[in-house]
Design brief:
The complex is a heterodimer of chains A (302) and B (530). Chain A is built from eleven helices and no strands. Chain A has 302 residues and is mostly helical. In chain A, helix 1 packs across helix 9 and helix 1 runs parallel beside helix 10. Chain A is globular and about 65 Å long. In chain B, helix 7 runs antiparallel to helix 8, helix 7 packs antiparallel against helix 17 and helix 9 packs antiparallel against helix 15. In chain B, the strands form three sheets. In chain B, strands 1-5-4-3 form a four-stranded antiparallel beta sheet. A four-stranded antiparallel beta sheet of chain B has the order 2-9-10-11. Classes of the chains: A mainly alpha (302), B alpha+beta (530). The interface between A and B is medium-sized, with 30 and 31 residues. Chain A: One of its GO terms (cellular component) is plasma membrane.
């Protein structure tokens, strides 16, 4: 239960860390740390407006999106703290739960009948598809190294304190960070802050949503941000830590995760849309690199 | 260069000696038979093989209805940079004449805006004109069933292509304009731009009042980001009644030059910020935004308005650039240009920024010539075209416009060229402001003329004024009656010519690159729609 609570808690904060980092690097004070929460609070008090071409699908999609993110969060452990739900092959369920939420959102977006939503959906689906191999290569590597089949068992057993596996741990964390950037629509793949419909990816899909629906999607997005962060944190925290030190490690690593995203967003321009495919293949190459490193280490008897 | 007799037929004046303004008595404008006029225009504007001439361009071509006979009288002004001349001629369309004259735009594409406007205002549909698309209204004024909703966008019947429509209401705080993309997946096949949603009737408002103050205020409001540019152009016209070289004209002209360059500097820096924002490069964005604020605040310190409204007035001004104010501007700009240089170096050495700009949304020099591009949009494509060069009196004697050379820079009019021209022009503008301040410091003892709103314009004349605003060549033309009042007023904002550049730049480009290209031209909607 502890990892789930931690994910929920960090979901409320990561956005704030990113905003503060960006603001500080821009020489500004920035908005309040919990401003995203206040914004969602306002949205929750508002009613929705639906396109004339939308059906029940549009109405349930945001809830499905949020629910799938919550369900996926249940599957994640933190080091030796086990996940709420855990079984062999749960990481496959994890990946497709998130994909299911995305599918619901894509279908809802297509229903609105606007060309922006269509464009955004096509891009979002393409990018998700291209980043999927990376996720499975990374998790597969972990499964191979530890010989286990569920997230809880993998991360409980993953011993990154030996010199060889420390290197692997860094590669994995970097890989998960990149997957996180893609899945959460951050720079360099997407720009969450843009107002230009034609350049949007994720934001274009939710252009038509309003009120509680939009609030649900935003909450789902925070959850996803900390879910993917959780994976990177898991790869990074020293093995065999437990109790309060583990929670401290988690807090530090999660803050670093937010700060790194903020740094990337401040110091880098986003990719050209066509370059994204190349970029995503590179991200998958990181997964392959992790896999190769692990494979070599294992076959050489370590 | 051109046949001798062509030059002889057209009335020639040299506005270079008079700060870009010229006045021609209406009786002196030669009225040619249309075939002669058309042939002369072809000779003036294009080479023998049909390519447009770099140095010559039509700056105004419009028609007015003769109150007495109902005939349409057409006037055309052609600027020849090489000789520093502006040639004027016209032709008359008889009220009872059947059929329309032959279109010039089909051979000289740059003429399309003028012919479309004439068709829109007077119903003269030139024979063979490519497309009498509405220009300053978002619908066909001559068709009572036409409205904004039934606008006939260009379309292609195809199962592979899809249409994306943006506007006229946009997400950001920008003006209204409709963009219709024909897309093949993510690739733009064709972009059609429909403007006119901002039409306010500026030209008739100016002609409809005798109040000079109101006229210059209207001039300041033609395009909010070019307040000084348009006001300077209009002031040139309002001052046409006095003999050239009236008391204090040098002083006022020098101040206007400084103001124009400050406007250019501020907008170029702001545009750099906007470009960075659109490619999500936060560091460049915030750095440039801060610098722009410094420049426009310096402007506020001078005249009380950050955009220079209230500064330019006919025959004088209310805000003298005193030694103290000049000193403040010099200090500010020295700091600004130093920091802007650093930003420029940073932009040109950041790989992710370069990857976003290099080779993207290019416009070739040939395309720019054909559509009649002006200002930085023309210069970034390698055309040496700058009104300051031939027609304006400026404090910097050895002024040379910045031209991004396609061969030397390797940028074929792409986004990077559009960034580079801003970085370089800012340097030149800064140097010119400094030179202007120095020049003014040497004239502190001269009496400062107060604005005069009472003087009539030159009587029964065609008065024109050419000014290089930050966006390019601004041309104002007025026809005056026997009392020296404006009977017809025409305004040509550089955006009028450059919107086609935007449409061409995104042909074959990615649709996600359109907003960046749009920002890189930063064209005016209201300046176009008037």
């Amino acid at each position: 239960m502890i990892p789930f609570i931690l994910i929920l808690a960090s979901a409320l904060c990561v956005k704030g860390v990113i905003n503060k980092t960006r603001a500080r690097l821009a020489g500004r004070k920035g908005c309040r740390f919990f401003q995203p929460l206040l914004t969602v609070g306002v949205l929750l008090g508002k009613g929705e407006i639906y396109s004339t071409s939308s059906t029940w699908l549009t109405r349930v999609a945001p809830a499905v999106y949020l629910a799938s993110a919550l369900a996926a969060a249940l599957l994640l452990p933190l080091g030796v703290f086990p996940a709420v739900v855990s079984f062999d092959g749960d990481f496959i369920l994890f990946a497709y739960l998130l994909a299911f939420g995305k599918l619901a959102l894509v279908l809802a977006a297509m229903e609105s009948g606007s060309s922006f939503q269509g464009m955004g959906s096509a891009r979002e689906v393409l990018f998700s598809m291209l980043v999927e191999p990376c996720f499975f290569l990374l998790v597969g590597t972990l499964a191979m190294v530890t010989g286990c089949g569920s997230f809880s068992a993998i991360f409980a057993k993953f011993d990154n304190m030996s010199v060889n596996l420390l290197m692997l741990s860094l590669i994995l964390a970097y890989g998960f960070l990149n997957v996180a950037l893609v899945e959460n629509g951050r720079v360099p793949v997407d720009d969450t802050r843009t107002h230009l419909e034609l350049t949007m990816v994720h934001e274009a899909m939710v252009l038509d949503l309003s009120g509680v629906d939009l609030a649900f999607v935003q909450m789902g997005s925070w959850l996803k941000l900390s879910i993917w962060g959780m994976l990177a944190v898991n790869a990074l925290i020293p093995a065999r830590t437990t109790g309060w030190p583990l929670i401290l490690w988690f807090a530090a690593a999660m803050t670093a995760y937010g700060a790194v995203i903020g740094l990337i967003e401040s110091l880098m321009a986003r990719n050209r849309m066509t370059k994204n495919a190349t970029y995503l293949v590179t991200v998958s190459a990181i997964g392959l690199l992790g896999f190769t490193v692990a494979f070599v280490l294992m076959t050489s008897g370590l | 260069m051109m046949e001798h007799n062509t030059l002889d037929r057209w009335f020639s004046c040299r506005p270079g000696q008079t700060g870009g303004t010229g006045r021609i008595a209406l009786a002196e404008v030669p009225m040619l038979p249309y075939p002669t006029f058309a042939a002369d225009m072809r000779v003036l504007l294009s080479e023998k093989d049909g390519t447009p001439r770099e140095g010559n361009r039509c700056v105004a071509y419009f028609a007015v209805r003769d109150a007495a006979g109902g005939d349409l009288i057409f006037y055309a002004l052609v600027a020849c940079d090489a000789t520093g001349e502006v040639l004027a001629a016209g032709h008359v369309l008889d009220y009872y004449q059947e059929g329309f004259p032959e279109s010039l735009a089909k051979d000289i594409p740059a003429m399309h805006v003028y012919e479309r406007e004439i068709a829109e205002l007077h119903g003269v549909h030139f024979t063979g004109a490519p497309w009498d698309k509405p220009l300053r209204y978002p619908y066909n004024r001559h068709h009572r069933d036409d409205s904004i909703d039934t606008y006939p966008f260009y379309s292609i019947d195809s199962r592979e292509l899809h249409e994306v429509h943006v506007g006229p209401v946009h997400a950001g705080i920008i003006e209204p304009g409709a963009f219709r993309f024909l897309c093949d997946g993510e690739r733009i096949v064709h972009l059609e731009i429909a403007l006119g949603y901002q039409h306010r009737g500026v030209e008739s408002l100016v002609a409809g009042t005798r109040n000079r103050l109101r006229q210059i205020l209207l001039g300041e409001s033609i395009a909010g980001d070019t307040a000084i540019g348009h006001a300077t152009a209009m002031a040139g016209i309002l001052e046409s009644g006095a003999a050239f070289g009236w008391q204090g004209s040098e002083l006022v002209r020098c101040e206007r030059a400084v103001a124009l360059e400050m406007e250019r500097l501020a907008v170029h820096i702001g545009d750099t910020a906007a470009l960075c924002m659109d490619i999500a490069y936060q560091t460049g964005h915030v750095a440039c935004e801060a610098l722009r604020t410094l420049v426009i605040n310096a402007m506020q310190g001078w005249c009380g308005n950050r955009f220079g409204k209230g500064l330019v007035r006919p025959f004088g001004a209310n805000h003298r650039l005193t030694l103290e104010r000049a000193k403040q501007i010099e200090t500010t700009l020295t700091e600004v240009i130093g920091r802007y240089r650093t930003v420029g170096r940073d932009l040109l050495s950041t790989p992710s920024v370069l990857a976003r700009l290099e080779g993207i949304c290019p416009v070739t020099r040939r395309q720019a010539l054909r559509v009649g591009a002006v200002g930085p949009a023309a210069r970034m494509a390698g055309i040496r075209r700058d009104t300051r060069l031939a027609y304006n009196f400026y404090p910097l004697a050895e002024f040379e416009p910045v031209v991004v050379d396609a061969e030397a820079d390797g940028g074929n009019g792409d986004l990077l060229s559009r960034l580079k021209i801003r970085l370089r022009e800012a340097e030149v503008s800064c140097a010119m402001v400094m030179a202007g301040c120095k020049e003014l410091a040497g004239r502190w003892f001269e009496e400062y003329p107060a604005p005069d709103y009472g003087r009539p314009l030159a009587r029964e004349s065609l008065v024109f004024s050419l000014v290089e605003g930050w966006r390019g060549e601004i041309c104002h033309v007025a026809l005056t009656d026997a009392e020296g009042e404006v009977s017809a007023y025409k305004v040509y904002d550089p955006s009028l010519h450059n919107w086609m550049m935007l449409a061409l730049s995104v042909r074959g480009a990615q649709i996600s690159d359109f907003p960046v290209s749009n920002k890189s031209f930063n064209l005016s909607y209201c300046g176009h729609d008037l």
